[in-house]
Amino acid sequence: PGLKQVRRSTLPTASSRNHKTCWVTGTRAGAWTRHLRGLLPGQSAPVSWLPGACPTGDRLLAALAKKGPNRQVPERGSERTRMALDAQRENISTQPGSRPARVRIDGGMLEGGGQLLRNSCALAAIKRVPIEVFNIRAGRAKPGLKPQHKTGIAIIADVCNGSVENVHDGSTTIRLDPGGIVTGSHVGDTKTAGSCTLLAQATLPVLLYAQPTDSTPISKLEFRGGTDAALAPPVGYLQHVLVPLLRARLGLEVEVELVRRGFYPRGGGIMKLNVKPLELGVPIPPVDLTNRGEITMITIHAFAAGRLLNKQQDIALAALTDLRNALGPAVRIQQHIVAETQTTAKDSGAGALVIAETDTGCILGGTAGVEKHQPAAAAGSQAAREVIDAIQSGCCVDTWMQDQMIIFMALAKGKSRMRCTEPTLHSRTAMVLAEMMIGCKFTVHKPRENGDQCWVVECQGADLTRS
Q1: What sign for the dihedral angle of Cα 91, 112, 76, 365?
Q2: pLDDT at residue 139, as a whole number
Q3: DSSP state of 58
Q4: For the RNA 3'-terminal phosphate cyclase insert domain, which residue ranges apply (predicted)?
Q5: Distance between CA atoms of 110 and 464, rounded to whole angstroms?
Q6: Which of 41, 179, 255, 456 is most deeply buried (CB count within 10 A of its CB)?
């Protein structure tokens, strides 16, 4: 009632060719038209849907008139030079029913990888909203779930006392029905070299909203797999960069402990994560990471294990040499060099973590592992180069931190701000997903025209609390 169909056509993007769209026009003023973003008589707005989502298009439009424009415009593409969140935040639909509506999320949108899946499950658990994620890793060479993705879903479901469906190797669609989050002890084992740190990143925000019990006032998680895996931050980054920043700037009580390092291809590493929930009714505070300050200290962490034992000295020396050449002799640099034992590391591996601290509390990190057929010193040089680039950019966070801060900014109260390099596709995906699922609002500002290299990401947070 009150809506008339004007035109139906295929959406203009190839990736959305299975979706249909129609233009709807308001024919009278009323409360239901205001749900369509202030649609007035005579004004039109596009609404799109997947054929078959409802028995008829008319039924879907009636639901939209009541519940608002839950439009679907899946998109998967390359990096953008300009954020266009208004055109991106529409990869979501709902299935009405007596329970909270199930949210359907296109797992192939934007970055379309494991991070989108993990964040979807984490936000669903926090909001206690059932979700269905489809097209999981659709653009990858081997779409669908891998063992580490299954472990991530399982641990979040365990933490929130939820149930899951269709979680198996290669699955491209999963469902999660969250329950209540309660503190406790949990174990997540990838049974491979899958990254432990990515599992920790996914569960950490969820655990902040757990209901503590008398016997377990904090949540204790143990993760098994790869602690120093490719394409993921190593455990040292969580210990020395992420967690110190969360504690100092957000007041979160989080601890990460490394028990044993695990490397590709067998894994076997163990790390622990302890999280104290937020106080009842108290949200995460806003964070301002826009004042970089001056570098006060640089720390080089170098380690080696197994067949690479004794390479840690080469790694540290390469990092030190590059840092001195780039930053000069005035910067204070300290080193922590570790020869791992059979007790502290499984199999062979080596790597570097370089950390720069500033007088305003910013922490910049660079990481690298020793690659096959490359000299060990290359890892030290790569980690040093990442920190040098971050320092010379003038930004307040490194690329890893940029990606990881998005979810905390989204959950927090008030406006958070972060000076960073151009938002990565991972960051943009996290922003779009958070806006869709919890109602926060991100704004991205390009660098000013005075030679500044830094972008500014702002977020009006969703102000979520533990109730």
Answers
A1: positive
A2: 85
A3: H
A4: 290-392
A5: 26
A6: 456
